[in-house]
Every structure is written in structure tokens, then in C-alpha cells.
Amino acid sequence: NAGVMQNPRHLVRRRGQEARLRCSPMKGHSHVYWYRQLPEEGLKFMVYLQKENIIDESGMPKERFSAEFPKEGPSILRIQQVVRGDSAAYFCASSPTGRNQPQHFGDGTRLSIL
Amino acid sequence: AQSVTQLGSHVSVSEGALVLLRCNYSSSVPPYLFWYVQYPNQGLQLLLKYTSAATLVKGINGFEAEFKKSETSFHLTKPSAHMSDAAEYFCAVSEGLTGGGNKLTFGTGTQLKVEL
Prior knowledge:
The complex is a heterodimer of chains A (114) and B (116).
Chain A: E1 5-7, E2 10-13, E3 19-24, E4 31-37, E5 43-50, E6 53-56, E7 65-68, E8 75-79, E9 88-95, E10 104-105, E11 109-113
Parallel strand pairs in A: 2-11
Antiparallel strand pairs in A: 1-3, 3-8, 4-5, 4-9, 5-6, 7-8, 9-10, 9-11
Chain B: E1 3-5, E2 10-14, E3 19-21, E4 24-26, E5 32-38, E6 44-50, E7 56-58, E8 64-68, E9 73-78, E10 87-96, E11 102-106, E12 110-115
Parallel strand pairs in B: 2-12
Antiparallel strand pairs in B: 1-4, 3-9, 5-6, 5-10, 7-8, 8-9, 10-11, 10-12
């Protein structure tokens, strides 16, 4: 059973470009989460999605960031007009249905902004 | 709001020595607590979870954690450290969300170094 798959593992963008991060959850998992890890910090919750629905985006920056989980295909975290402060590791996690089920994490995408 | 505090951003032990990584939580409801380990350039791997069934929780790789409500603590221990335990460890508390999911709030992590 494949784990949570994220790609790319590393992404380099110049200021002002767009970054697209992809996440395929574990088979059978209907809940997808995105977290951001800034240097020397723990992971911070960004957004929680189910198929075709954003359930909770309370951790998302108000501008430039968006997320989706379409009916077909992976979940996408999109960052428009990237700035230096967006440099971080972005992790996707998935879990099965059920309260407080453990979340399973992908290996992350390391985003570097030049 | 729920929160987690990990005391000690860096812990160093000798191989074979006891490992103790501290975690204190703040929660207005009975908490669900987790310990994760992160190896360099990898994602987080679940070590163990507390879901109110038993206060002493055993996890993978010989780790265990004890939930102490009176102390609001969930410290992680391992009797004998191994070189392969060197990694960063995160404590997290879970908060239920609308839709049946849950949000993890993480501590800032403890980097464990194991020396010969």
C-alpha cells in the first residue's frame, strides 16, 4: 500500500512565479491536510480538504495561497507570486474517516525562492 | 486553543542510555496526543498515539509515552538509545474539525543526538 506521495520533492522558483505542489493521499484515505514547516519551527496547519471541498482553511495565508482536491487527481497547493518568505517545506498528510485518526505524512516538497 | 510545549530543543544522550523527551499540552477537552519522528529530508512518521484507552502507550522502535493528566504531560521515553534514533521528534495534539477530520498542533520539536 503506497504511502502519501508528494511531488516534486524540491522546487525552485524565482520571486513572482507560481508554485504548484501535488499530493496523492494513501489509498482509502478521504481526508487531506497541508502543513508548512518553516526553518527551525514545527509544522503549522494550513488547510483541510475532502474531495471537491475545502473544509477548513483557517491556517492559510489570506492572499496568494489556494488549495484544491478535485474529484479526480491529486490535491494541489498553489502559491501565486511567490516571495522569499514562502521558502519552506510543505507537507501533505492524509487520514481515513474517523475522529482523531492518525495522519500519515508524505516526504514533503522543499520550496526555495530565489 | 490547544497547544503543545516541548522542553529542550536539543537533547544529547549516549548510546545505550535512557531517552526522555518532554511534552506538555494544553487542552480544554480530553486530548488526543501523538508523537512523530522526522528523519532528515523526510516526512513525519508516527511513533505512537494516545486516545484515552490506556495511559501508558507503546509505540514503534521501542518508544513509549505516559499520559499524566495531573501534570498535563505526555513525555516520550526509550530505555536504551540507539544511533539510529538520532532524529527530530515532534509532539502533537489533535483538535477535531467539522467534516470529521482533525487538525494537529505541533510542538517546536526536539532534536535528539546519540553519541558513542
